[in-house]
Amino acid sequence: MDTTVLVALITGLITAVSTLGATALTAYRNAKVERWRAEHTLVRERERREYERDRTRAREVRDRLEAVRGSVLRLDLSMRYIAQIRAHGPPKQGGNDLPEQVRQARTHLYEAVIAVERMRDVLPPDRQDRVDDLRDAVDQVFHHVQARTGRSVEPVHRKLMTGLRALAAGVPAEGAAVESGAEGD
Questions:
Q1: Which terminus of the chain has a lower count of CB atoms within 10 Å, N or C?
Q2: Looking at residue 96, what is its pLDDT?
Q3: Contact between 100 and 129 (Cβ < 8 Å)
Q4: In whole angstroms, what separates CA 33 from the centre of its chain?
Q5: What does the buried/exposed string (b/e) look like for 176-185 if buried means 16 or more CB atoms within 10 Å of the residue's CB?
């Protein structure tokens, strides 16, 4: 065999092996890069979903807190108005009578109880005592309205407002992560 043919054959063989090796190495590297991109995309998508879920949960907590605020403040106003009617009589012009105000206070009481209890679902267990404190204050309003005595509303009012402030302080600010109080999340 001629040496030129032998050199050409070896050179061709080396070129073919190098080409096959480079092709295999490039394919392996491309597959690895694509796998990394896919994993990275999945991680980004999972983080985006978590962020959206946290934002939705935080919005739900804030909405429920606003419902609690509104219902508790209506209940407080009803209680104060009933106490005023009991102490000084109904207003001379266009005022509702006492039985109507008591019925309205009961409606406000039910709304407040429901709103306060709905907060229990969205607050973590370490903040449930704030819900309990506010619920106790709402129950005291009920007893005060039912009592028909001339007791001062100030202690009940203060406890109600303190409970409301404590509950509001237990809700994270906008943009902060919210932990769910519901099991199974």
A1: N
A2: 64
A3: no
A4: 38
A5: eebebbeeee
148 phi and psi angles, rounded to 5 deg = 60, 25
CA dist 154 and 151 (Å) reads 9
Q: Is 149 or 176 the better-scoring residue by pLDDT?
A: 149
Q: Residues of 127-142 as b/e, b for ≥16 C-beta within 10 angstroms?
A: beebbebbbebbebbb
Lowest-confidence region among 8-12, 90-94, 156-160, 181-185: 181-185
By the 8 A CB rule, do 101 and 82 touch?
yes
- Measured in whole angstroms, the distance separating CA 146 from the mean position of its chain's CA atoms is 35
- The answer to whether the CB of 152 falls within 8 A of the CB of 108 is no
pLDDT over threshold 70, residue 179: no
